[in-house]
């Protein structure tokens, strides 16, 4: 974590939601940009962010466990869960009697595995490009059009690798959020789910960028 949100607010891990609100109001008066003496736009924004995270029980737990990431990633992770949750409901007529969150969890794990394979393949592609690049020569002082093309390709791969890595972090955060929920379904349907659960996962087409 880049900053201690508890320190930003001036509270500790045992502080209640009411304590956090009280301390936020106190510090907000001091740090508000309109306060010419002690105001600071940057510190005020950090204070707002700290209050947002520590006032929300789920975000606070994820932060304490080191699994929150930044606010943007948290929003994306929630979107991943909601989009796939609604898509699963629409795709499977019998989903009401299955453990929906277990199916979602398996999908998220499979998606991360696929994205890790994408990164591995892109890294292998870059290794191949480097070997080819080292064997291409031309007259000294002249532009090497083939090396330029290879460098451009490798730059594109590097960008995609970073994008997929961020997507993996988002999906892993979604997994952590999902752990806070459970789906209550009839006990009589457990055997049915055990038979159809894997089938549901293998036929469920989730939502992912890659």
Give a verbal description of the structure.
With 210 residues, the chain is an all-alpha fold. It has two domains: 5-55, Helix Hairpins (Orthogonal Bundle), CATH 1.10.287; 75-203. 70% of the residues lie in helices and 0% in strands. The chain starts with a helix and ends in a 7-residue tail after the last helix.
Summarize the structure.
This protein is an all-alpha fold and 210 residues long. It is built from 8 helices and no strands.
The number of helices is 8
User: What is the average of the pLDDT values?
Assistant: 83
Report how far the terminal alpha carbons are from each other: 27 Å
Question: Ranges with pLDDT <50 over ≥5 residues?
Answer: 188-202
Overall 3D form: flat
Structural features:
70% helix, mainly alpha, 2 domains
Element layout with pairings:
Elements: H1 5-9, H2 17-31, H3 41-55, H4 57-64, H5 71-91, H6 100-134, H7 145-178, H8 190-203
Helix pairs in contact: 2-3, 3-4, 5-7, 6-7, 6-8
